[in-house]
User: Fold this.
Amino acid sequence: TYTQHLWEAQLVDFTLEVMGGRPFVVAGNSIGGGLASGLASNLRSLCKGVILCNTAGRLLERDEFAAELAAASGQSVGEQTLAVREDPGALGEAYQAPPVGGQAALDAFGWVLINFLRPQVGSLLKKYYPRRPDAVDA
Assistant:
């Protein structure tokens, strides 16, 4: 079936074929961020960086989720997210703020990207789904 594990495996194969074993940096948006993280984890000796933008939540196995929920001391996902935003160091070495501008620069980048893309959504959808352009509601 089509799962994140299959998609990660496809990304690993694609990256190895295209990059030929050379180091790379991967970027992912939304669910692609989760997949980019998986790719980086699977090819950690080759992956030199990961760029995540508006990344979807982590995908966990049921028992992993239950263990993390139990360890969260009753905090909701939202409370945990806000706590990490206040203290990015809570993620350990896995998270490093951008070297210039820190979290503020990252927030500004996200704002600029979204505001650049938003006006183009309608025309992009019509371009990518040409069979029924009248169905585009943007």
Summary: The chain has six helices and two strands. The longest helix spans residues 4-19.
